[in-house]
Amino acid sequence: MRIDLHVHTLESDGSLTVEEVLNLAHTQDINVLAITDHESTEGISRAKKLAKHHNIEIIPGVELLTNFQGEEVHLLGYFKDISSSLLQTRLSELRYQRTTLAYEMVKSLQKGGLAIEWKDVEREVGSVGAVSKGHIMRAIYNRYSEINPKSWQDIAAYFRPGGIAYLPYLKHRFEDAVDLIFNAGGLPVVAHPGLLRQPNIVFDLLRYRPIGLEVYYGYWEQQRSLISYYAKVAAQFALLATGGSDYHGPFGQIQIGQMDVPVDGVNKLRILLDRSL
Questions:
Q1: Which of 29, 190, 217, 236 is the most buried (most CB within 10 A)?
Q2: Which of 169, 206, 153 is nearest to 39 (CA)?
Q3: Pairing of strands 187-190, 71-78
Q4: 107, 131, 157: which is the final residue of a domain?
Q5: Is 165 part of any domain?
Q6: pTM
Q7: What percentage of the chain carries pLDDT values higher than 70?
């Protein structure tokens, strides 16, 4: 069984539409797919309709940008039902805040000497979703692709601590995001812990409430050893271990369905979501 529990579409900062993602998942023989757009569940209903024709199980999801003790922490949420007014109202507020922050990032880039305009970023946004640094990064890449090409690594450096566009999002506390997901009938999972600036805070994150941990992830140096390490962490401190490609488009290093995600995690996820109803 092929599983991918971390996929983005054009509804946030992915480069493919929901339809294109589902068609691609079908060609890759994926059996279980979670759409986890940033601060948005807009693509879920379309994904479910399309998935019926491809015999793919869709697990509704979302990815939230949160703040824990001044550090940016990404949190995945998985659901049986995303119709909760509590969830949707809060997601709308978060999208507005994220877009406002993205606008400030563009202004910082301009002050730093980059020839980038807000309209360049808007061209990368394909929906009502939040504008994020992912959109800005693609705008920079496309703007400079012919005159003075910039590598993805150089572009990403603008947004890391010390970079000219590093503006951390501090308005959504990790604890509040966890509570939001639980109160909306979902299950929170700490995303890609190997990307945390202070990796040891993962133990504090998992102590707040019983939640899951994303273990089977590809965008890490020393991928094999980190997956082994976080599998042990999850076994001892988390409700379950999940994984996925964090797919944003064909330009990524990890393609959809590429990570080997054990079926045990999906089975536990189904059971926990059924209990939450």
A1: 190
A2: 169
A3: antiparallel
A4: 157
A5: no
A6: 0.93
A7: 99
Q: Which residues of 38-68 are buried (b: 16+ CB within 10 A; e: fewer)?
A: bbbbbbbebbbebbeebebebbbbbbbbbbb
Number of C-alpha atoms within 13 angstroms, CB side, residue 95? 21
Residue 114 contacts by C-beta under 8 Å, 6 or more apart in sequence? 140, 158, 164
| Residue 174: C-alpha distances to residues 62, 85, 130, 134 (Å) | 14, 20, 18, 21
Q: How far apart are CA 224 and CA 207, in angstroms?
A: 25
Query: What are the two backbone dihedrals, phi and then psi, of residue 171, each rounded to the nearest 5 degrees?
Result: -90, -5
Are residues 66 and 178 located together in one domain of the fold?
Answer: yes
Residues with Cβ within 8 Å of 45's Cβ and at least 6 positions away in sequence, in order, are none
Instruction: Give tens-digit pLDDT for 233-260.
Output: 999 999 999 999 999 999 888 999 999 9
Domain boundary among 122, 157, 192: 157
Residue 174's CATH number: 3.20.20.140
